[in-house]
Write a structure and sequence with these properties.
Helix content is about 30%, strand content about 25%. By secondary structure, the chain is of the alpha/beta class. It folds into two domains: about 400 residues, ANL, N-terminal domain (Rossmann fold, 3-Layer(aba) Sandwich), CATH 3.40.50.12780; about 130 residues, GMP Synthetase, Chain A, domain 3 (2-Layer Sandwich), CATH 3.30.300.
Length: about 650
């Protein structure tokens, strides 16, 4: 059955406390998680009000109604008439002379930053923003590292009711302009220099180019990424008068990957994010007051924004700025040991690479503090689940699925349920997830398209500049009228949970038999010399043709090709053995860690690279040339 973890001490979990709260206050009893979840999606108004009460959400202006549901979901109104402050809920957990942030970079030792020091830096930045006349509703953007400067800047911006948006320094200037120009920002924050993969980068020319290409900017504030301007020994205590905003007031703008077109400016509400982060981080990640929370991310990925929510739970935020693989893959595991991290999050490829290298840094003795392992970005393979569980037998492995669209997950962890290798444990509370077949019928025990049948408060309020909701509607509500279609294939098992099977637009369809790309990747994880892989399904003269690309430690000879085909045949399906297998230098990823299956597929179908790929939004743009060479060779001389 591959059950690898069984709940222990559920009575000490946040979810148990929430159940007890519902029992005491509302006389509600649930015999299992499925009953609790069903109640949460059948009684949305009641459920979300109970979340606001349980977490003591402070409304500066009370709400007149909790939920006015409309369809499409973007017309729905949540907690109408209310006002609140996101920053206020972060700062109510601030403690005098207590640690707020644990920071480490490639070039520095661990630095612990107290709330006193952080608030002093927030005050300094806040005064600058006020001097530059930044007001409620103004947009402030960042070209920033995953650094305490960025945390302080965000809190300062949010405390004034301004709107935040950020990209990391690994974005190209054109990609940043494509994003920020949509927002007409008033002010830019930037880091002048940084270190990545052991190399030093100076950003001065890029910053000047951004200033020239963003004419709306009134001012630019540049940080040097050192702590020379921080008072790390501060004993001051600072209180702020925080700006209260409407529940639906935009908190930040995130962007779609932008690899295949102009990035969508996804705008989230202050109140929706506040409620969602309490629910997801506290109830499903089981993040507790005083816990140390880490997620490897850049500031351009939604996981940075998600991580900020750890402050809401009274946690200490642990930050690592730099490459997860430099000088080798053990560096962040050693950071977890040094910083005594309780919740360690990373992309699934990181965990799979750790497994394939079988690194010694992952062991129960050195990492005894870790309560949960969080994995996202792509499905975590069965083999990686088992390897991690064997190395860390007491740790709960929580694989998450959601997205930038909701700045959270809607499928994730549960302290009440067992973990089965390869499966995500549950649909999260308040998330009405179903798997639909082609006829719009809810199916279990077979693969279906992931749809959300009820609104969630963290769904976007709009796409910035999309005044008639045209782009928003086309993104989620065209394929299946009346429900949100997310674009993933899932398999629902009533006992084990949910199996993520890849993007629905990248599904492999061979003679009417469909499987998700993640099934192929999971099977290839059993071959240690294959570091990574990508598969596409293209139609040639009416016939499906599967093309597999592998990044391997050894030459792709006939023996390795035969082994690959044998593994896929035995573990997946004889129908889905590839027609062609090519060796590639690197598998292409977006900066946020998504495999670029669809752009590669479009290139092989003959579309122009300039139309389907924005190299500035890629983690490794240099590898695209390898695919072009293969494609040109393949088109001249088809094989298989």
């Amino acid at each position: 059955m591959d059950k690898i973890w069984i709940p222990k001490n559920y009575e000490k979990s946040n979810l148990f406390q929430f159940e007890k709260y519902l029992e005491k206050k509302y006389n509600l009893y649930f015999s299992n998680y499925a009953e609790l979840h069903n109640w949460s999606i059948k009684n949305l108004e009641f459920f979300w009000e109970s979340i606001s009460n349980f977490y003591k959400i402070h409304f500066d202006t009370p709400y007149k109604s909790i939920l006015n549901k409309e369809n499409p979901f973007y017309k729905t109104k949540w907690f109408a008439g209310s006002k609140l402050s996101y920053s206020a809920h972060i700062l109510r957990n601030a403690k005098n002379n207590k640690t707020a942030i644990v920071y480490k970079s490639e070039s520095s030792n661990i630095i612990e930053i107290s709330w006193n020091s952080l608030l002093e830096k927030v005050k300094e930045i806040r005064f600058s923003l006020i001097d530059y006349n930044i007001k409620k509703g103004d947009v402030v953007v960042g070209y920033l590292l995953n650094h305490p400067d960025t945390i302080a800047a965000f809190i300062a911006v949010n405390s004034l009711g301004a709107v935040w948006s950020c990209c990391s320094p690994d974005f190209g200037v054109e990609s940043i302009v494509n994003r920020f120009s949509q927002l007409k920002p008033s002010l830019l924050f930037a880091h002048q220099k940084y270190t990545y993969n052991g190399k030093n980068f100076n950003q001065e020319d890029k910053i000047n180019e951004l200033k020239r290409n963003l004419p709306s900017l009134k001012k630019t504030i540049v940080f040097d990424s050192s702590f020379d301007n921080w008072n790390l020994n501060s004993n001051y205590w600072i209180d702020f008068k925080l700006e209260s905003v409407n529940f639906k007031h935009p908190i930040w703008v995130l962007f779609s990957s932008g690899t295949t077109g102009k990035p969508k400016a996804i705008t989230h509400s202050t109140g929706g994010i506040l409620l969602e982060q309490y629910k997801s981080l506290s109830l499903h990640q089981n993040l507790m007051n005083g816990d140390r929370f880490f997620w490897n991310t850049t500031t351009g990925w939604m996981m940075w924004n998600y991580s900020i929510g750890s402050f809401l739970c009274g946690a200490i935020l642990c930050i690592y700025d730099g490459s997860a693989n430099f000088p080798e893959i053990g560096v962040q595991w050693r950071f977890a040991k040094e910083a005594k991290i309780n919740h360690f999050g990373n992309g699934s490829p990181f965990f799979i690479a750790s497994m394939k290298q079988n690194i010694n840094d992952v062991n129960d003795k050195d990492l005894k503090f870790i309560k949960t392992i969080g994995a996202t970005g792509s499905p975590l393979s069965i083999e990686a689940f088992k390897w991690l569980q064997k190395k860390l037998p007491k740790t709960q492995i929580i694989s998450l699925s959601g997205g930038t669209d909701v700045c959270s997950a809607f499928i994730g962890g549960c302290a009440k349920l067992p973990v089965y290798a390869g499966f995500l444990q549950c649909n999260m509370l308040g998330a009405s997830i179903q798997a639909w077949d082609e006829n719009g019928k809810n199916v279990k025990g077979q693969t279906g398209e992931l749809v959300i049948t009820e609104p969630m408060p963290s769904m976007p309020i709009y796409f910035w500049g999309d005044h008639d909701f045209k782009k928003y509607h086309e993104s989620y509500f065209v394929k299946n009228s009346g429900v949100w279609t997310h674009g993933d294939w899932i398999f629902v098992d009533d006992l084990k949970g949910i199996l993520m099977q890849g993007r629905s637009d990248a599904t492999l369809n061979r003679n009417g038999i469909r499987i998700g790309t993640s099934e192929i990747y999971s099977s290839l994880d059993t071959i240690k010399i294959i570091k990574d892989s990508l598969i596409i399904d293209i139609n040639v003269d009416g016939n499906s043709k599967l093309i597999l690309f592998v990044e391997s430690e050894h030459e792709l000879d006939q023996n390795l090709k035969s082994k690959i085909n044998r593994v896929i045949k035995n573990k997946c399906s004889p129908r889905h053995t590839p027609n062609l297998i090519f060796s590639i230098s690197q598998i292409p990823y977006t900066i946020s860690g998504k495999k670029m299956e669809i752009p590669i597929k479009k290139i092989f179908l003959g579309q122009s690279i300039n139309d389907v790929v924005s190299k500035g939004a890629m983690r490794n743009p240099e590898c695209i040339d390898d695919f072009l060479k293969i494609k040109n060779q393949y088109l001249k001389s088809p094989v298989g």
